Amino acid sequence: MNQSDFDHFVGFLKTKAGIVITAEKTYLVENRLAPIARKYGMATATDVLAALRKLPPPALVNDVLDAMTTNETLFFRDQRPFDQFRDTIVPDLLARNAASKRIRIWCAACSSGQEPYSLAMLFNELGAKVDGWRLEIVATDISKGILDKARAAEYSQFEVQRGLPITMLVKYFEQSGEAWRLKPEIKNKVSFREFNLLDNPRALGQFDVVFCRNVLIYFDQPTKAEILARIAGVMPSDGYLFLGGAETVLGVSDKFAAAPGLRGIYLPTDKAAARAA
Q1: At which of 34, 68, 102 does a domain end?
Q2: Structural domain boundaries, residue 60
Q3: Residue 246 within any structural domain of the chain
Q4: N or C terminus of the chain with fewer C-beta within 10 Å?
């Protein structure tokens, strides 16, 4: 892999998906592009890079973006955000949205669906408290392949063992051979859409809560600021933003500020100032 091809690929990923990779990730590029080379009858990952410098077919571009997108996820990942959502955020939303009885959540970079499905199960567990309420979860990702898996809502034994309580597995899944299929009552609460975080999300509508966890770490500072500004544009002044444990808005964006006493949760700046006062 020559430096020219690698440098072009770095620019390609930054332009198409906002992903930033550095020179020491050469091995990662080669490993992830090797299967694509075989799929398209090419000899090596270098041939894929060369093809991208010309006018590559959309299918190749999509396959490359899928390969370079990190899709690590699990049910109830890190647990604390979900406890905070259930114990603090939902009660506030139930009081605030009592007239409409509607809550909208955006799960950005949803990967194979464990995060939005975790939220749907958690909401369902509230029982009579949410009778008559309409929960809408819009889950998006840039990867077509991973969205197909998310929509199928079928997981291996290994996947359901990662974070999913056994009580919820028995209650909300049906076993099919060695796989576990999510029941329609939960599956139907989530709609999946292909979406690039570099694009304007206004077409998705407005959201009370946005989960954008463990994805900003892959972008540079200016791109993080742009994404946070776009997210702020689809949230009300009293909305909630969840970020990953290694992510923050400090020094990145003035659109949000930390929610007092709620680690990893951020409020639109005006609302945060009012709460702190």
Answers
A1: 68
A2: 3-68
A3: yes
A4: C
